[in-house]
Amino acid sequence: MIVEPTWKRIGLKEPLEENSGQGIGIIILDYIVPHISLYHLKGRVKQVKVHKDLTITCSDVFEEPLTEKVTRDTDHGLMVLSLLAHQSLEFKGNMYSGLAPSANFIFLPTSKPDRIKAGLEWILDQDWNARILLNLWVPQPFGWMSPTNQDIDVQAMQPALDAGLLVVAAGGNSKALNNLHPNSFFVVGGFNDKGANEKSRYEQHPSASYGLNGDGYWRPDLLAPYTYLPLPSLTGEGLNYFGGTCGASTVVAGLCAYLMSIMPELTPNDIRNALTEVGDVIEDFPASIVNGDKAIQLLKEGYRNSKPPSTEPLVKVTDENQSILSKNPLERALALTMLIKKEKLTRDEIWRHTNDESPMVKKVAIQGLGDPVDQLEREKYWSKVHKESSKCGVREVWAYALLGTTTKEELDKWMSLIEYRTIDIWICINLFLRKFYPDAPEMEISPDPDPKIMTSIVAPVLDWYKHSINSSV
Length: 473
Fold this sequence. Notes:
By secondary structure, the chain is an alpha/beta fold. Helix content is 37%, strand content 13%.
């Protein structure tokens, strides 16, 4: 399979200039190591670490000893940085290049809200011209629905918004997610372009999340390629591939940095509004698809729209006892969250809401139930896993609810879920097997939803399971 360069797949007719992103600081919520493949960025990559006592240290990443090693702990940040700034590479007749190779990068490697806030405040006090915050932390936890301003992760990133940065956020790789990013974030979701800019082949990705957030706003704002985002191999010759909405949001952040560098007068909202204004619309897709050339042309022609996104909640709950009866599913979900957290509902009452017509409300109820209280109830959970749909992630939330208290004896039950073939279900199965059957093959979960790929991933585990059954007979 020939995978086209990222620049072509986001609607550009040619690679961006080598000075793309020059002078623009991009803060990235991820961890980075001084990998030899990115040594050309020496002097332009910093890592800001916030310690337990909120003291801060800053290092120039490529002043440290270089490494050629890539591990599960380090590959994510390396691929993010490589997508943004790798050296140009000609491979099989295609020219691959980073989208913002001349930008400056500041990594903030923490997921703890108090440390994110302290780190951002410190970074924004430096003279680094930080213009973009690339937020790669997806919304958590799975079930609750609340106004987004109550989310401690959202609160932690407020300094970036107050300073006028464009917060580009990964939309999430799971339909199990419920309360999505706030409207103040420029949220990028994903679609499956199968590695090429050919609209006739585009399809929705079954894992990418979309829907309403707790304020009533639709998320995401924009879609970008989700699978097979190419970069020079970190361990040898040829290409490696990144994926998910972390990859999709990274390429959009790179495009935004380019626009900021060639038209420094642009505001973050000028860029956000232009990209959403000219995105390619495909019927039934949850958002428009990024089209870089159209946005560049629009902005060069003088388009300016600095109108900020609305953040005033569209749905509010003033009386949860009344709102739980509302015809609006979001209002019911918000009210149910409040009632459960205030411990105003019995377990039987929470159970009744698992039959609500809205997947959003169901996911709140499952979150409220938590772990099953006994074996009889556990069987009800397993029944729900098989009866519910994966379309909005309800089946997957039930599976996660079972995972925390599962036992070795539930092997048959977990293996019965393989047929559903969703990433969340397979993550649950992987975690179960790693804990109780470490000799089982691990499924190397791919962002590619192609049935042939998924069959090849699961085949070794099914073979192991059949052998285990035969051995125990």
